[in-house]
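Quarterly update, task 2.4: D-glutamic acid-bound model.
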Amino acid sequence: MTLHKSGPIGVFDSGVGGLSVWQVVTNLLPHEDTLYFADTIHCPYGARPMDEIRAFAEDAIRFLLAQRAKIIVVACNAASAAALTHLRLTFPHVPIVGMEPAVKPAAEQTRRGKIGVLATHNTLQGELIQQTIARHASGVEVHLAAGTGLVELVEAGQVDGPAVTALLRQHLEPMLEAGVDVLALGCTHYAFLRGAIEQLMGPDVLVIDPAPAVARQVTRVLESRSLLASRRRLGQHRFYTSGDPGAFEVLLKRLPGVTCSAQVFGVS
Ligand code: DGL
């Protein structure tokens, strides 16, 4: 299958979380068309068996490729942790860019030598995070927290308020007490909670979202393969969900920092 520069960038996640990555990608590459697929019916991925996540991710990529995607962005840490190697072997002809918790920049920027990673259960159990810590944070104290329940809040459109703060406090207080001064976000849904997270962690803690690094990587890959779209027009965007398109459309308009009013299509 040949990849064309006129094809869209395909982005997927278990739900709306990957929109935090999609937004940064489209800001950086405004002339690119995009397709976003939210596997809402199977959300959350974070506590599912790894082979199930692999199968969902494969289906998502087949769907995006059927619509001429020229590059795939796995805008989901859980799917990247469970399936990235497998996906690259299964679809060798298409470049696939995945997420990795921002352990490296966190380890580089900590002054106290203590960093935190907030991610879903699966991401914290996967090999990717252990390899990343071993490679980039060997001399640093790393505190891991599983943000159980946070994805569900974001999917319900709750990104601030008492319920969000209470759950965040439960997950983040131990690392706050341990004195971390950098927190890496390891789930794309959590980017939408950034305001609440920063408020809770206070001004001395730097919060890092890997989305800008991923968007730069997408640009590099497209450039190196001569796949960047022509700059003659602005990109067009289509959104698909395996869940309820109406509910997704409402969420799309509510999420902080997401600027798009495109129509959402259902996929069964
Ligand atoms: N947004 C996802 C991630 O980055 C998936 C969360 C989930 O479905 O549990 O991990």
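Highlight for this quarter: The first strand starts at residue 9 and ends at 13.
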